[in-house]
């Protein structure tokens, strides 16, 4: 019996699908930070509340309290009168690091455009931490972001969520505990890329057929693993000679062969990996939602979605977020039927989840102003969107989309002290981030050269330059 249990333990180790293994783990460790008390300030909490002339206290990298409380003797007290404080901004769609600056061919690492299905690739393995874009985004108040593969493929691979901190490795930037995302793309991009090579898919119907074929394979892969794991569980429930007999039988049965592509797809079917879908047209988004029902997975967020306003109620009912641009449109046929009220209309229904994303190394530097444009158009349409509602588009809703809303995205006691201190209302065209804190550590301060992080790449370019 003792031998049988040892056999079962060995088998169980091999039966765990690699999608669940903690490979390439985060090595991010917050920098120790002193306690800080901000007084007489306006706080947008990120969950729909605005608190005027209030106090915010951060300690040990966390939000300690808002309003009233006790501060430690060694606390730094900041009179923030006239300033506004928000959660750190979050960009759910970025290609920093995989398409870094300078934009040369040697840095083009975002699209593995060699097959329509490349779910086996991980964006983090292309990230160059020295991309100067990270520090530019930090100056704009961005404390976290999802780095995605490009949209050449039906299944582009895994995305990764990062803390916006300096590091020599992407592991040192990985947001602890954040789930992977699966980047998918529909519409013109994949059919154009492969149709131009006389490959499939070359049509939208080819796109859908290829998705379904891939999901069928992933379902079989998942079922194979489930059956093998169930056999080990049943074997472990036996005793005596029955246990030894079953263990011996299992030793002669090989576990399913590992497949990196199918591991990722199986992870999405299981719900461990969040699905992020590049899609523009309303009819295609509805098709994708039907396909998700067919295979039993959940679409977490549609990205770009210039026609999302047409199906805002359906998205809210399905619990799907729309990560959208304020006013990008018209650069290809599927991007023509856009309106500038898109974000506001997606946000309008009960349960609506609207997000402002960048998809741009420049747009990420002014995510608050992109949200301002969307808020303005919504207000002109009579939707009455105040700052405390609009801030959710670049904080709490974004955190929800990435599966990190239990850690960041709102200013609540116990959550990470990822915060931005603005010189005024962040929805003003004149707004600037004065200070940015990541886990309570002051990482950027306007006008302070010591807190204007530069990448090793930039430092190398400045070698020998007269100061």
How would you summarize this macromolecular structure in one to three sentences?
31% of the residues lie in helices and 20% in strands. With 467 residues, the protein is an alpha/beta fold.
Task: Based on the model shown, name its key terms.
TIM Barrel; single chain; 8-stranded mixed beta sheet; 16 strands; alpha/beta; 467 residues
Notes on the structure:
The protein is of the alpha/beta class. It has one domain: Metal-dependent hydrolases (TIM Barrel, Alpha-Beta Barrel). The chain has 13 helices and 16 strands. It is globular, with a radius of gyration of 24 Å. The protein starts with a helix and ends in a 5-residue tail after the last helix. The model is unreliable at 1-16 (pLDDT under 50).
Topology of this structure?
Layout: H1 2-15, E1 36-44, E2 50-59, E3 62-66, E4 76-79, E5 84-87, E6 89-94, H2 133-139, E7 142-147, E8 155-163, E9 181-185, H3 188-195, H4 204-237, H5 240-251, H6 260-270, E10 274-279, H7 282-295, E11 299-304, H8 312-318, E12 321-324, H9 342-347, E13 354-356, H10 367-380, H11 387-390, H12 396-402, E14 419-422, E15 433-438, E16 441-445, H13 456-462
Parallel strand pairs: 1-4, 1-5, 6-7, 9-10, 10-11, 11-12, 12-13
Antiparallel strand pairs: 1-2, 2-3, 5-14, 7-8, 8-9, 14-15, 15-16
């Amino acid at each position: 019996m003792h031998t049988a249990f040892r056999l079962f333990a060995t088998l169980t180790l091999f039966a765990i699908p690699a999608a669940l293994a903690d490979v390439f783990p985060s090595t991010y460790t917050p920098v120790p930070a002193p306690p800080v008390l901000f007084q007489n300030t306006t706080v947008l909490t990120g969950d729909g509340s605005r608190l005027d002339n209030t106090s915010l206290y951060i300690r040990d990298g966390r939000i300690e309290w808002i309003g009233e409380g006790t501060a430690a003797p060694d606390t730094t007290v900041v009179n923030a009168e006239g300033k506004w404080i928000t959660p750190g901004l979050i960009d759910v769609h970025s290609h920093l690091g995989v398409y870094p600056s300078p934009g040369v061919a040697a840095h083009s690492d975002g699209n593995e455009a060699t097959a329509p299905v490349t779910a086996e690739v991980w964006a983090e393995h292309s990230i160059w931490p020295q991309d100067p874009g990270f520090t530019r985004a930090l100056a704009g108040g961005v404390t976290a972001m999802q780095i995605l593969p490009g949209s050449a493929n039906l299944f582009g691979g895994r995305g990764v969520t990062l803390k916006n901190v300096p590091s020599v490795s992407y592991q040192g930037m990985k947001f602890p505990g954040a789930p992977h995302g699966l980047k998918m793309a529909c519409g013109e991009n994949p059919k154009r890329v492969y149709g131009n090579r006389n490959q499939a898919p070359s049509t939208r119907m080819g796109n859908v057929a290829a998705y379904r074929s891939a999901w069928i394979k992933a379902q079989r892969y998942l079922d194979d693993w489930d059956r093998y794991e169930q056999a080990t569980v049943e074997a472990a429930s036996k005793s005596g000679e029955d246990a030894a007999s079953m263990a011996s039988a299992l030793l002669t049965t090989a576990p399913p062969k590992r497949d990196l592509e199918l591991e990722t797809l199986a992870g999405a079917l299981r719900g461990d990996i969040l699905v992020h879908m590049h899609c523009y047209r309303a009819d295609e988004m509805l098709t994708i939602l039907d396909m998700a029902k067919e295979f039993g997975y959940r679409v977490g967020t549609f990205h770009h979605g210039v026609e999302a306003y047409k199906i805002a109620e359906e998205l809210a009912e399905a619990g799907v977020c729309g990560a959208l641009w304020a006013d990008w449109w018209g650069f290809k046929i599927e991007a023509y039927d856009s309106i500038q009220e898109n974000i506001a209309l997606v946000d309008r229904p009960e349960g609506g989840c609207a997000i402002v994303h960048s998809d741009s190394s420049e747009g990420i530097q002014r995510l608050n102003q992109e949200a301002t444009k969307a808020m303005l158009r919504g207000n002109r349409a009579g939707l009455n969107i105040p700052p405390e509602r609009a801030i959710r588009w670049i904080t709490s809703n974004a955190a929800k989309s990435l599966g990190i809303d239990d850690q960041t995205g709102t200013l609540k006691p116990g959550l990470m002290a990822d915060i931005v201190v603005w010189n005024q209302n962040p929805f003003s065209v004149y707004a600037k981030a004065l200070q940015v804190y990541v886990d309570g550590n002051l990482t950027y301060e306007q006008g302070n050269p010591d807190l204007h992080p530069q990448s090793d790449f930039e430092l190398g370019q400045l070698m020998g330059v007269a100061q």
